Amino acid sequence: MSDVLVEAAGLVKRYPPRDRHGTPFTAVDGIDFTLRRGESFGFLGPNGAGKSSTMRMIACVSPPTAGTLRVLGMDPLTAGRQIRARLGVVPQDDALDRELTVLENLLIYGRYFGLPKPEIAARSAQLLEFAQLADRGRERVDALSGGMRRRLTIARSLINEPEILLLDEPTTGLDPQARHVLWDRLFRLKQQGVSLILTTHYMDEAEQLCDRLIVMDKGRIVAQGSPAELIARHSTKEVLELRFEIGEQDKGVAKLRDAAIRDRLEELPDRVLWYTAEGEAALAVVHQLGLRPATAMVRRASLEDVFLALTGRTLVD
Amino acid sequence: MATADAMALRAYQYWILRYRRTWRGTVVISIANPLLFLVAIGVGLGRLVGPDSAALGGVDYLTFFAPGILAAAAMQNGIVEAAFPVAVNRGPGGAYPVAAGTPLEPEDILHGHLLFMASRVALSAVVFVAVMVAFGAARSPLVLLALPAAALTALAFALPSAAWAVTLPDVRPVMGIFKWVVMPLYLFSGTFFAVEQLPAIVRPLVYATPLWHGVDLCRSLSLGTVTWPLAAVHVGYLGALCGVGYLVARRTYRRALHA
């Protein structure tokens, strides 16, 4: 068995215009990547970067406009059924049937895969255990919290024992505690050998779950690698974050630039980021220049900084 | 890999499971409403209409009206069963995108849902015809053939509705169908009065509407006045609507679910 899960070359997705006067919209603009078994991947990027379109093509529910795509060694255009039979899909909107019970939602989904009812019942019991919903089986989905519904959606996606699990923004809209519970569950799946492919615009999520990241912007791949590699390649080790009083930021930045600072300075609406090898030394320079920022913080560089360096924009507006 | 038929049955099972939860609500609109019409208008108002009125073809009003409302209710059921659920379930969070992520193809999802729509409209027609017979509103044993005729009428509306509804961004445009299509057809397709009572100039317009073909087919079977060549025209017309609706639906379903 080949260890390549997904392979894309020159992959393009273009949507037809909405009306007669519109223009076609290119969501994915010629991307190449190879995803291998045993790793977890994240497509990272802001809204509209082309992450979800790429995921839909991998999920075999959106035919590519151009380029080649192979999922589990097969062509989605001719073997969609066979590929989807081996995938698990966790959509962003849960898409559970709220009028049915937890167990009925699993039953229907299992039937879609042609599993016999006793088999579905056995797997459902295990999956609800895994999703920490064991005592909720007979409740209507209506009665579950957002975090529970997301865990149920993950349980549902595992009913066919998929080799690849596709998750679109798995923790968007959840509170911090629910996110951590979910990450823990996903991490366990990873350890059991399920390959995760997810989209996210959360840096912490990408760092928690992904061995390898593909950073997308405007339909193209702008960088790929492990989180640590990306930080090493595209950012300095440390970042000094300076917040100035209202109206003071421009003067402060001008002074720093006059002082002929070689490091990269990034001006955001609410703060200035100074990319430096030595944050404390940079802060000393700030004080020597007589600047009095309202707050100053030295931190390690993160994927957020990588994204900013690559695209000049922040991930979450 | 299972055959396409088996795939459609998997999709059908979803609707059956849902129906076990929601059937009570559907009884009101698909069965109780037309029966109330039958009683209120057929029996109540019908008393005011002179018996053996020539325009009604020499039968009492209830006997004239019942097969008409059978066909009109079938039309309404066909649209209700297709347009609303399809428009709701094709969108985010609906049942269609979920099923599309599994081995089911858009055509399987279409077939499974059509099968369910057909069961629903057939069930409503069975109940209605049973009540018609109980009221003594059927003149011929051929009324049994009015069952498939009513189901065919329903599907002639359901298939094009489904083909259209799957292209909608949300359910709102469906309301317009009731205002601009269902109501006028309901009133002017020979349901409540014979088309011959309308001015000659508008009659061809009525003959072109699909509901009139359904009404005339059901009525001629219930009264036993059926002429087979004309019945063949009715079946052909309604069948053609089903066929065209189905072919268009295959395309629109694929476009909507595999965008």
TrEMBL record, chain A:
InterPro entries documented for this protein: AAA+_ATPase (IPR003593), ABC_transporter-like_ATP-bd (IPR003439), ABC_transporter-like_CS (IPR017871), ABC_transporter_ATP-binding (IPR050763), P-loop_NTPase (IPR027417)
Highest taxon above the source species: Bacteria
Domain ABC transporter intervals: 6-243
Membrane topology: Peripheral membrane protein
Subcellular location: Cell membrane
Keywords: Antibiotic resistance, ATP-binding, Nucleotide-binding, Transport
A Pfam family it matches: ABC_tran
Primary localization: membrane
Signal peptide, first to last residue: none
Annotated family: Belongs to the ABC transporter superfamily.
Protein name: ABC transporter
Annotated source species: Asanoa iriomotensis
From TrEMBL, chain B:
Major place of residence: membrane
Membrane protein topology class: Multi-pass membrane protein
Pfam families the UniProt entry points to: ABC2_membrane
Annotated localization: Cell membrane; Membrane
Domain ABC transmembrane type-2: 25-256
Keywords: Antibiotic resistance, Cell membrane, Membrane, Transmembrane, Transmembrane helix, Transport
Highest taxon, organism lineage: Bacteria
Transmembrane segments: 27-49, 61-80, 114-136, 142-165, 226-249
Homology family: Belongs to the ABC-2 integral membrane protein family.
Stated name of the protein: Transport permease protein
